[in-house]
Amino acid sequence: METDERENIETQKSSAKRLGDKVAVITGGARGIGAAAAKLFAENGAHVVIADVLDDIGGTVAESIGGRYIHCDVSKEEDVESAINLAVSWKGHLDIMLSNAGVGGPEGRSITSLDMDQVRHLFSINLHGTIHGIKHAARAMIKGNNGGSIICTSSAAAIMGGLALHGYTMTKAAIDGLVRSAACELGEHLIRVNCISPHGVPTDMLLTAWRRFGAADITPHRLKQLIGTRASLLKGRGSSIEDVAQAALFLASDDSGFITAHNLRVDGGHTSADSRMSYMYQDPQ
Predict the structure, then answer these.
(1) 96-137 tens-digit pLDDT
(2) pLDDT at residue 4 tops 80
(3) What's the CATH class of domain 14-200+240-266?
(4) What is the pLDDT of residue 124?
């Protein structure tokens, strides 16, 4: 088979996938939700740049999917700009930005004892990092003049009080407002801006939080079981990083081409309805 013919076949295969030949940057892509999204995007034809501070892990993930890795502290605007520039210099354009990097924080339980230095640290990564991502992705997409999809990872904690500590909750709630505001401006350039709000996903960050507050021996499997029985309308069905990655894939693809300024909840219905009311729909014994 001639080289040109082989390349044409590969191009046709790639374009038949949901993200055929699209270029994506994923912050926080070394592990957890970000790594799951990176792998899923690549499986669907995307060229993926992973931007993270976990160099060894991130580099391994990028190599495994034929992508690129760059060290990126999202609290530093120049790092995020460099990640976007890498994608553009590698493939000539940017189509997808998944602003996923985020941290929890030991800022204390009570509003009366918040450590403001720790709160500022949370904002520098969770919120400022998201601003940096939207800003520089939008610049590249506007210059490319072919639209694009910007996706930000928020949290169910931004919707329902009491699901996380105050500092984390504030940063994620701010992301929701930022997404709606940015969508208003960037829609003129056919750039869609949305966010995803997961709940109870057994990531390292959530497991660490549970262990800090008394569940020292909690495992990912046990956490998933607890979410499935206590915080989901889908009884016995806990959440996973793959659930969130699939939501990101939908918002990144043309399947969601008329969706913007939207918060896609991946929470088993927890923030929409009270599963304790399900007794109303059961026949009396």
Answers:
(1) 999 999 998 766 678 898 889 999 999 999 999 999 999 999
(2) no
(3) alpha beta
(4) 97
CATH 3.40.50.720 in the chain, residues? 14-200+240-266
The DSSP string of the chain is --HHHHHHHHHHHHHTSTTTT-EEEEET-SSHHHHHHHHHHHHTT-EEEEEES-HHHHHHHHHHTT-EEEE--TTSHHHHHHHHHHHHHHHS---EEEE---------S-GGG--HHHHHHHIIIIIHHHHHHHHHHHHHHHHHTS-EEEEEE--GGGTSTTSS-HHHHHHHHHHHHHHHHHHHHHGGGTEEEEEEEE-S---HHHHHHHHHTT-TT--HHHHHHHHHHHS-SSTT----HHHHHHHHHHHHSGGGTT--S-EEEESTTTTTS-GGGGGGGSPP-
pLDDT tops 90 at residue 16: no
> Of 97, 83, 82, 103, which is closest to residue 32 (Cα–Cα)?
103
Catalytic residues: 168
pLDDT-above-70 percentage for the chain = 85
Q: Is the pTM of this model over 0.90?
A: no
